[in-house]
Amino acid sequence: MFKFLQSVVAGSGTGLKDLPYLIGEPYSSAWGSWVHSRGTSKEDGSPVSIFSLTGSSSNDGHLAAGRNGVKRLRTVRHPNILSFLHSTEAETSDGHSTKVTIYIVTEPVMPLSEKIKELRLQGAQRDEYYAWGLHRIAKAVSFLNNDCKLVHANVCLESVVVTQTLDWKLHAFDVLAEYDGKNQAASMGPMLQYEWLVGPQYKPMELAKSDWTTIRKSPPWAIDSWGLGCLIHELFYGTKLSKTEELRETSSIPKSLLPDYQRLLSSTPSRRLNSSKLIENCEYFQNKLVDTIHFLEILNLKDSVEKDTFFRKLPTLAEQLPRQIVLKKLLPLVASALEFGSAAAPALTGLLKMGAWLSADEYVVKVLPTLVKLFASNDRAIRVSLLQHIDQYGDSLSTQIVDEQIYPHVATGFSDSSAFLRELTLKSLLVLAPKLSQRTISGSLLKFLSKLQVDEEPAIRTNTTILLGNIASHLNEGTRKRVLINAFTARALRDTFSPARGAGIMALCATSSYYDSTEIAARILPNVVVLTIDPDSDVRSKAFQAVDQFLQILKNFHEKAEGGESGGASSMGISSTPGNASLLGWAMSSLTLKGGKSSEQTPLAPVNTSAPLTSAASNASSDTASTTTVGLSLGAETADQPAPVSPTSTDGWGELENGINDDNGSEKEGWDDIEPLEDPRSSQALATIQAAQKRPVAQPKQVVNSKPKIAANVHKNDDDELWGSIAAPAPKSVKPLTSKTTAAADDDDPWAAIAAPPPTTRARPLASGRGRGSKPVVSKLGAQRINRTSSSGV
User: Which parts of the sequence belong to the Protein kinase domain (predicted)?
Assistant: First the structure.
C-alpha cells in the first residue's frame, strides 16, 4: 500500500490528476480497512488528512460501505464530527487487474491513540483532558441519535480522531444508517446494511444476534451508548478491546464515571443511558478544563461582569491546566474572542501570559496577528492594555509591521483627551521608535513630541524629554543637530517643573557625544550653568555634574588641539570619555527614578497647584501594571518660584509662550525654526569694550525696581534669531542674580559701565518691574553711571 501511495504522489492514477492535494506518509492506525495519511494542499501547502480505501472491483462490499461513509460525512455537519473537504475515486491497473480507490480529504487530524501517546498526560491533567474529549464525542453521538435519528453503530477508539487544536471528532460513518423503529414494513429486514464491518467485541448482545425486532423496539441511542462504554474502557485501559467480557473490568475507570459507565453497558437496551443525559448529569465532566472551554465557546451569551471576572482569573487558571491544551486550544479561543470583540480588555493579559509559553516562531504566527489587529480597535481599554504590555511583545514585531500597521494607530494617542493615555503612548515609543523609518520619525513622530514638550501635564513634558534622550541614537545626524539642543535647552531647562529641568540636564549629558565643542561652549554650557543656582537641590546637583562633564570634554579638545592631534575640526564628543556607554543607561534610569522625587519629598503647601498624574518616576520598561502618582505642589524649597506666566502677560515672555502654542499646528516638528547660535567672536566683544571706553559718560534715567534684575545687553533681533517663535518661557525657578547694594557702591564700581554682555546666554531682557505693561531697560554702550535702589526703598 505504501508503494502505491508513493506512486500516487508521483502522479500516477487516472483519477488523481485533478486532485488538488498531495498524499504523504500514512499513520500507523486507522478504522477498518481505511488508510489514514497526512496530506497537503497543492494551492497553499496547508495540511489536510486523506483517507483511502481500496477494493478489488467496483462491486466490492467495502467500497459500497465506503461510498456510504463518504455520502454521510459530506451531509452531516457538526462541530464534533470530522469536517469533510473533498472526495474522489480512482482506478489503477497493474496489467492483470483493476483496483478502485476512494479518497476522502478532511481537515488535518490524527488518530486518538497516537495523540494520547504523544501528549503523555498523567494524573489529574490526563483525567481533565479525557473528560473534555469524551464530552465532545458524547455530544456528537447525541446529535446523531436524538437530533438526526441516525445510528453510528461503531463508536470506539479507532473511530475518534484529534484535530490540531486537540479537539476530539467522530468519523468512520461507513455503517451509519437511519433509525427506522417506526417503519413496520421494514421490520423483518436489517436496519444496518453494513453491520458486518463492526468487530464482534464492539457489538451489544442484540446486534450480535441480529435481533432487529429488539433493536427497532429499543431507543435510537441503545447501540451507540454501548459503543460509548467500549470507548471509555479502551481509553482508560490504553489497549484495544479484544472481547466483550473485558468490559466487566472496572478497576481503571474513575469512580465519578463508573455509575454512568455501567448504565451505558446495561444488558437491557431500553435501560441504557442516553448520551445527552450523560453530558448533563455526569459528575466526571465537571472540571476546570471543561468549564473553561465551555465558557469561551458561549462567550457571546455572557454579560460584561461575567466576562471581566473570567478573564481576570484566566492567567492563574491557565497555569493549572495541561500546557499543550492551553496553547493549542485555549489560546486560539482567546485570540479569536479578542479579534471579534467578544472578549473584554483583561483577556489581553491572559493572551500574553499564554503566548509567553510559545516558541518564537509560534508566537509570530499565533499571537502577533491578533495584537496587530487590536491596535485598530476603538475600545480605549484595549488600547491602554496594549500599551501597558508592549514591552512583552514589542521585540517580536517586525520593522515593517510597526511602521505601516501599528504606528498610525498608536499616534492617535498623542492627541487623546486622556492624559493617562497620552503618557502611555509616549512611553510605548521607547519600544517602537527603533523600528520606525526615518521618514516616519521626521515627518510625524517629532511633531507629536514637540507638542508634548509643552503639554499641560508636567509629567508628560518630563517623559517627553526622557524619550528624546533615549531615541537620539535612532535619529539621523541632521535631525539631531536641529532638534536635540533646542528641545533640551529652550524647553526642558526652562520648564517650571523641576523634574523636567533635571530631565533636560540628564538628557544633554546622555547625548553629549552628538555635540561638537562649539555647540557645547556656546549653546549648552550657558544654559546649564544658570541652573547651578536653581531652587531645587536635585536640579543643582545635576547641573554641577553636567558642567563638570562638558568642561572635561572641552579640556580634552583643547589638549588635543594644542598637541596638534586635531586638524582644526571642532567635533569632540563624550564618546572619547571612558564609561560613556554606561552613562547613557544610568542617566536615563536615574532620571526616571528621580524625576518625581523632588515633588514627592516637598511638603504640601496650601496652594492650588496640585494635579495628580502618573509620575515621571514610573519607568516605561516596568513590568508592573500599577502606576505611581505624584501630587505637584509648591513646597518650602520652591515657594519663591514665580507662578507660571500667563499667555497674555506682558512681562516679555508671554509673546514667546504664545509662539509655542501657535507652532504646535505647524507642519514641521516644532524645532526647525530655532536657528543655531552664532559663534562667539572675541573681536566684536573687544570692539564693544573699546567703543564704550571712548564714549562720554551718559547719565541714564533712574529706574526704581522693587526687585532688581540684571538686564542682558543683547539686542531684540538677536533674541528673536535665537529662540524664534517657539521658545519656552524663562525658567521661573531661577532666582535673580542680584545683590542688594547701595547706589554709592555702584558708583564706585569701575566695571559696571563697561562690562561686556555674556557672549553665549543671549537671554531676553527682563522687565524692570513686575507689573504688567512695563518695558525692558534698553542698554547703552559707553561708560554709564547707574543709580540703583534696593528693594527696601533706601
Answer: 2-285
Residues in the chain: 794
pLDDT value at residue 180: 83
Alpha-carbon gap, residue 520 to 781, rounded angstroms? 29
Phi first, then psi, for residue 499 (nearest 5°) are -60, -30
Query: Kind and range of the H or E element at 581?
Result: helix 580-594
Q: What pLDDT does residue 16 have? A: 67
For position 188, what pLDDT does the model report?
61
Cell of 433: 521608535
Pick from 763, 743, 297: nearest CA to 526: 763
Q: Across the beta sheet with 98-106, what order do the strands follow?
A: 21-26, 35-41, 47-55, 98-106, 84-93
Distance in angstroms (rounded) separating the CA atoms of residues 260 and 341? 39
Half-sphere exposure of 86 (CA within 13 A, CB side): 15
Rounded Cα gap, residues 533 and 543, in angstroms:
9
Asked if 649 and 770 touch (Cβ cutoff 8 Å), the reply is no
Q: Determine whether 400 is exposed, middle or buried from the number of CB atoms within 10 Å of its CB (0-12, 13-18, 19+).
A: exposed
Comparing C-alpha atoms, which of 279, 71, 265, 263 is closest to residue 177? 71
What is the distance, to the nearest Å, from the Cα of residue 663 to the centroid of all Cα atoms in its chain? 33
Stretches where the chain sits below pLDDT 50 are 1-14, 566-669, 673-683, 685-686, 689, 693, 697-794
Task: Pick the closest to residue 37 from 47, 50, 46 (CA basis).
Answer: 50
Could you tell me if residue 282 is left (phi over 0), alpha (psi between -120 and 50 degrees) or otherwise beta? beta
Give the span between the Cα atoms of 330 and 346, in whole angstroms: 15
C-alpha to C-alpha distance for 669 and 133, rounded to whole angstroms: 59
Angle between helices 498-510 and 458-471 (to 10 degrees): 0
pLDDT of residue 344: 85
Instruction: Please name the residue that has the C-alpha cell 520593522.
Output: 399
pTM as predicted: 0.67
Of 24, 80, 72, the residue nearest 52 (C-alpha): 24
List all residues 6 or more positions away from 176 whose beta carbon is below 8 Å from its beta carbon.
68, 69, 72, 144, 150, 151, 152, 153
